[in-house]
Amino acid sequence: MGVTLLGTRVSPFGMRVRIALEEKGAKYEFSEQDLRNKGPMLLEMNPVYKKVPVLIHNGKPICESLIAVQHIDEVWNNKSPLLLSDPYQRAQSRFWADFVDNKVYFPGRKTWTKKGQELEAGKNGLIESLKLLEGELGDKPYFEGDKLGYVDVALIPFYSWCKRCMQNESVSKSLPDPQEVYGFLVELRKKLGLE
């Protein structure tokens, strides 16, 4: 099966897809995209949103990171299931992954794209969301129990327990160097006129 991932090394959404592919042991080609000059492949494979990540599997695009992770889990279902088999538990995992996108990412983004009151609102929202997640995690090593799962893959790029998750080779091989991410954010803040 031919698999290509269109993305950027520093995108947390692309990291999710890379982690899932690595966890499953799937062979794939990574194609770094220039988001300032979007190429024809990206525009053809994601004509609606024109953004990364895009997982191309057998010539067919799968857009949006959580959808791509679910696709990977279904296709490479013989190794390391990311979603549990119980329908209720699967629904709960999808709920918490959606929570990560809406209540962790967006407030977190304000901490590096806003100033003043908007920055403070972002910090406060992020702290409250992380408290809720920490409560849900409890004493479990991972969200779904004893092994890396769907919610962990959704959250790893955003949250501090990634050190625990870094013990999984699929995670450590997929994340960029922290200095690379920091440099990207410094440049982004300059472009946005925040520094």
TrEMBL record:
Pfam families, per the entry: GST_C, GST_N
Every GST C-terminal domain range: 86-195
PANTHER family noted in UniProt: GLUTATHIONE S-TRANSFERASE U19, GLUTATHIONE S-TRANSFERASE, GST, SUPERFAMILY, GST DOMAIN CONTAINING
Organism field: Salix brachista
Designated name of the protein: glutathione transferase
Keyword Transferase: yes
Catalytic activity: RX + glutathione = an S-substituted glutathione + a halide anion + H(+)
UniProt-listed GO biological process terms: glutathione metabolic process
GO CC entries: cytosol
Residues covered by the GST N-terminal domain: 1-80
Top-rank taxon, per record: Eukaryota
GO molecular function annotation: glutathione transferase activity
EC code(s) of this entry: 2.5.1.18
InterPro entries tied to this protein: Glutathione-S-Trfase_C-like, Glutathione-S-Trfase_C_sf, Glutathione_S-Trfase, Glutathione_S-Trfase_N, GST_C, GST_C_Tau, Omega/Tau-like, Thioredoxin-like_sf
Keywords, ordered alphabetically: Transferase
Protein family (similarity comment): Belongs to the GST superfamily.
Top-level EC class as recorded in UniProt: transferase
